[in-house]
Amino acid sequence: VQLVESGGGLVQPGGSLRLSCAASGFTFSNYYMSWVRRAPGKGLEWVSGINSGGSYTYYADSVKGRFTISRDNAKNTLYLQMNNLKPEDTALYYCARNMGHTYNAYLNDYWGQGTQVTVSS
Q1: Residue 59, H or E segment
Q2: Could you report the per-residue pLDDT of 58-106, keeping only the tens digit for each?
Q3: Over the stretch 7-61, which tens digit does the pLDDT of each residue have?
Q4: DSSP designation for 99
Q5: DSSP H or E segment with residue 21
């Protein structure tokens, strides 16, 4: 199993970024997936999740209305569109394969290496 994130970077407040996560080594379309982040000096925070078919999406209150999770099962890729970014969104963002159908920062069995998002003027 391999998960490889990309798309992070430095952006000004109010800007946008699109994160991608390329999955391999398992049947991507069978699994619920999540984005989880770790801000400097803080613990893991679950950000967003999506079911295996992509029809149901869920968000943490801190990002609701600004972030959009999606997936392309034909391309084995998970996405996170992040709009109206705020300095408090600065974190290392991980994609993670869910263990079952519960969305949680810790109930995931495989993780990528993370991609850094920095929101600063």
Answers
A1: strand 57-59
A2: 999 999 999 999 999 999 999 999 999 999 999 999 999 999 888 888 8
A3: 999 999 999 999 999 999 999 999 999 999 999 999 999 999 999 999 999 999 9
A4: S
A5: strand 17-24
